[in-house]
Amino acid sequence: MLAVMSMMVTKAHYVDKCDIGVISTDGNEIRVLVGAVTIESKTKNLYVLTTPDTLAIKAVIVNPTSHFSREYDFHFKDIVIPYTEENLGRLKAISDKYTEWSKTAIENNVGHMEKDIDISIDDLYVHLYETSGNKVTNEFNISVEKKKFIFCVPATREKEPMLRIILNGKDHKKDSKYFAGSLWFNNYREFDDFVNFIQPENLTDRLKNKTIDKLFK
After folding, report:
1. One pLDDT digit (tens) per residue for the chain, 217 residues
2. How many angstroms separate the Cα of 24 from the Cα of each of 11, 27, 74, 133, 182?
3. Residue 32: CB partners within 8 Å, gap ≥ 6?
4. Are 56 and 50 in contact, with CB atoms under 8 Å apart?
5. How many angstroms from the chain centroid is the CA of residue 19?
């Protein structure tokens, strides 16, 4: 049985470049870099939130492709996906639908179009932080209130059908704080590789066996 994500705020000290392994901790939870995936034809680090004693995976963490927030000093750092059997199953279902529609669009020479994939993920939230000058002054989580998985066939035939994930939410205690973020996958293979990468057998093996020291002896 997979662990369900606690909605407690986990303070993290972010590092832009690091090895596979633990990069931050608050004593109860650790944020671990487990490798990299391709999103929008770019390499993005992928992290998990886990416990230092049992290495039970609580969430998968990925950086957005693009984001917007109202306030100048309000930064969108992470998209956090609670690691549950239900969410993994829904991501697989989205991947299957994205693959099916992509092949249909290509085989039938479909022109520019967009269509929502009517499958959702539970309890997504984003991690944000505020700065003053070069210092981080506050970190907090906001639940994602609106999310869409949009299948997009580009106008140009050189590009394959894409998947656009749109996330929106706001801090109800401070209405001035709201965010919009997105993840883009350039083709169904990128998304399928992402879904396969975060399966339990792969992540558990990476957490236990694939640190830099163990990979390069």
Report:
1. 333 332 222 333 333 333 334 444 455 778 888 888 999 888 888 889 888 777 789 999 988 876 655 554 556 678 889 999 999 999 999 999 999 999 999 999 999 999 999 998 888 887 777 666 677 667 667 778 888 999 999 988 778 999 999 888 776 566 556 677 888 999 999 999 999 999 999 888 887 775 555 655 6
2. 9, 9, 21, 22, 25
3. 20, 21, 22, 23, 47, 48, 49, 50, 207
4. yes
5. 19
How far apart are the C-alpha atoms of 90 and 122, rounded to whole Å? 9
How wide is the angle at C-alpha 134 spanned by C-alphas 20 and 74, nearest 5°?
A: 85
| CB contact at 8 A, 115 and 150 | yes
Cβ-Cβ contacts under 8 Å for 181 (sequence gap 6 or more) = 64, 66, 67, 68, 76, 79, 126, 166, 167, 168
> Up-side HSE of residue 57: CA atoms within 13 Å toward CB?
28
Q: Give the sign of the dihedral formed by CA 40, CA 41, CA 45, CA 50.
A: positive
